[in-house]
Amino acid sequence: MTATAVLAASTSGDPTELDGVAGWAVDLMERLGPLGAGIAIALENLFPPLPSEIILPLAGFTASRGTFSLAEAIVWTTAGSVVGAIVLYWLGVLLGRDRMYRIWDLLPLTKTSDLERTEAWFGRHGRKAVFFGRMVPIFRSLISVPAGVERMPVLQFLGLTLAGSLIWNTVFVLAGYQLGEQWFRVEDVIGTYKYVVVGLVGLALCVWVLVRVRSLRVPPEA
């Protein structure tokens, strides 16, 4: 039985699963082997809506079916993560500080001092942000852009990205490998984690907007 057939059986006969990200990822892995897993994760980095919590367990599940080895699944998905991250890093380099400031000035409710404080924070904590950011949904891709804007040394960026990605990918690939046909249960757990992260970010953004709007309404002191 192929991985696609098992996937179809494990999703309660819902054909939309096969027509979506899961079906596309499994087909890519079956056609290209571990290289397909790497390509899928590289694309996930470039397009954050593609969920790593589906692709990585699927890579582990596909490895459990003998399409490729567990080690190949981990190595190739981690390589894909690094490739996707370095593309976004160079996008940040091309964007540069000057363009970033010009774009920032066009955004509503923002001040130059906000960006300056963000840059100062990244200067102090950039290495931790890149490393741990690789383990936070959505931000695991986006963190590469400010690293490029701030011209973090390339080798340092690659080392931190490799380390963080290796941890994240190994956990999910192993989970998919161990769960086998029940690989999709991983998404239930990480889905809660993602919602918490997005909720906290949304709450922080709402508080920031309210504080900024109130500050604009306060008349300057004479």
What's the helix count? Answer: 11
Percent of sequence in beta strands: under 5%
Distance between the termini: 78 Å
- Major sheet: none
Give the tally of β-strands. Answer: 0
As for the number of domains, it is 1
Outline type: elongated
In N-to-C order, the SSE pattern is HHHHHHHHHHH
Determine the fraction of residues in helical runs and give it as a percent range: over 70%
**Which structural class do you get from the secondary structure elements?**
mainly alpha
Global Rg: 20 Å
- The low-confidence parts are 1-18
Q: For the residues shown, what is the average pLDDT?
A: 77
Domain VTT: 50-178
InterPro entries: DedA_domain, VTT_dom
Pfam families: VTT_dom
Keywords: Cell membrane, Membrane, Transmembrane, Transmembrane helix
